[in-house]
Amino acid sequence: MLVLQQKLKEEKEAKRAHLDGRYDYILSIVSACVNLEKNEVEDAVLEGNQIERIDQFFTAGGFRHVMFYYQDMEGPELGHESSTGTNSASAKGKKSKLFVTEGDDVALTGICVFFIRTNPSKAINAENIHREVVFNMMDTANGGLLNSVQHLLSDIFIPALNTMNYGWGEMSSSQKGANIKQDFIASLEGFVSVLSGAQQSLLEKVLLKKCETYDLKMLKGPADFLVAANSMETVERIEACMKVWIKQIEQLRKEADDLGPRAELDHWKKRLSKFNYLLDQLKTSDVKAVLGVLTVAKSKLLKNWRELDTRITDATNEAKDNVKYLYTLEKCCDPLYNCDPVIMVDAIPGLIHAIKMIHSISRYYNTSEKITSLFVKASRADSSSELEPHYYCPLKTVTVENNNIYLLITFIHHPIH
């Protein structure tokens, strides 16, 4: 054992002698980002073969990026030799660990410091590393990974791209190029909106409450269901649990009258996410145990539950369909949010066609009331822009030869105030 430890120590010192100015630059940045002493960072990356990954980052034609994670680890992942030397347990069985990763082997739960090469074909040396390598960090401690990526894009990259007037190549010399640039930035902003919506969905998800009236872990199979069903007191306790779940499910947020098609899409994506999460919970052992007992007991509450289960399934399918159909409107609506009035008007026929298609095949939007509402929201998309009043609602200038939506076009013909 002592011989092995001595050998490992010698190997680590040999690797340390290999470190040069490039490593000094990288490790100093990591040290500042994760608030560790530089020698602690150095000791951490000298473990195992992590140095080889960093070496490949420096070579011509090598890796495009290198990432350092600093986060709590537990069980087999921790290991004694991988410790950074801080040895401060943040929770029972957990300890903070710094390590090099490719990002696809361990989930990020702490801090990520990442370095990216601007030109992978050029070797990195101590003289050019500050020009050829860019870096940034993400801290998932507050809000998780989605929130961290969202703020990285919205607070740093998108503002930089909006103000950057160089490096766009031929796109800087033509109106077409300017439009492509605008579309690209709009796509990034749309992605940020998706991240925000996903994060909001996670925060708003409905988590069925733990049964407080009976220990459901005692119900392991049909025999236990039968015993429980023969006790009126037990059945009443389990029914009380189901009543709590029914109340939770019925309190799911109702549809809001949002301002435009994008907000409408966000609403249905969130709704789909919440119902999918709810359906997953309905397959858990606790719910199956409650259903098992109440089925044997022939509880009258089961009728309400089955009706609610059907409504949940219908609502999930409805949300799924609406997300699919509303995605077709995204491209049509982009000019209403991002372009000048002339381009807005040119985009209207495509928007009308998309809404006609939705009206003809959607189960939810196939009524006059619902499709009219969607038209109104589409008109609000352009009126939400900072335009002169006479540009409001260009939909009123469009005529469509289709009797099914003639009434809708007439409705939209009136200005939006």
TrEMBL record:
One of its GO terms (biological process) is microtubule-based movement. Residues 235-380 form the Dynein heavy chain tail domain. It comes from Ophiophagus hannah. InterPro entries: DHC, Dynein_heavy_tail. GO terms for cellular component: axonemal dynein complex. This is Dynein heavy chain tail domain-containing protein. One of its GO terms (molecular function) is dynein intermediate chain binding.
